[in-house]
Amino acid sequence: MKKWLALLGVAVLGVNSTISFAAETVGMLTVKSEMMVRGTPEKVWAVIGGFNDLPKWHPAVANSKLDISGDATAGGITSRVLTLNAPNAPVLIEQLISQDPVAMTYSYTLTKTEPAILPVKNYTATLSVSAAEKDKSLVTWEGSFLPLPTATAEDAKKAVEGVYSAGLVNLKEMLNTTSDGKVLPERETGRGVK
């Protein structure tokens, strides 16, 4: 009898964790932002495609440091420690899930957040570049997440939208400016951050 109760307990634990996981994914929020930028996909990817490149183009990121645990070629874990341009220099930690330079995309998950800045949990995101019109590219940044218990869904979405918008707008300005600081004229289709 004790043996059956132990097995039943294991089965119930398995069901509870499955139910808990399913409940965590049901209320997931998503944000998707796109920006048409000047430059071939290869040129744009050269600016944003490195997992440690965020400080080069995102104005909110002061510094990024890679942390590789284990052998990166044998499935080690690659994380980036982001120091933000904000009072008290808050830190976020994100872990690389996958990166495909040929497809010009990478995905990552947030492993440490600052609730006052990014009030989310279970956050995963993908950044990608694709060809658009001649000499233009479409940069897509999309993520899914849950709000922290201390935040509303609206607050969480606004925070993520703000991160994406700030980065994509700055990237567009960078790529539309010549080396001597002149802004190139727009020949846009009108597509901006969505």
From TrEMBL:
SUPFAM superfamilies: Bet v1-like. InterPro entries: Polyketide_cyclase/dehydratase (IPR019587), START-like_dom_sf (IPR023393). Keywords: Signal. It comes from the Bacteria. The keyword Hydrolase does not apply. It holds the Pfam family Polyketide_cyc2. Residues 1-22 form the signal peptide. PANTHER family: BLL4707 PROTEIN (PTHR39332), SRPBCC FAMILY PROTEIN (PTHR39332:SF7). This is SRPBCC family protein. The lineage of its organism: Bacteria, Pseudomonadati, Pseudomonadota, Gammaproteobacteria, Thiotrichales.
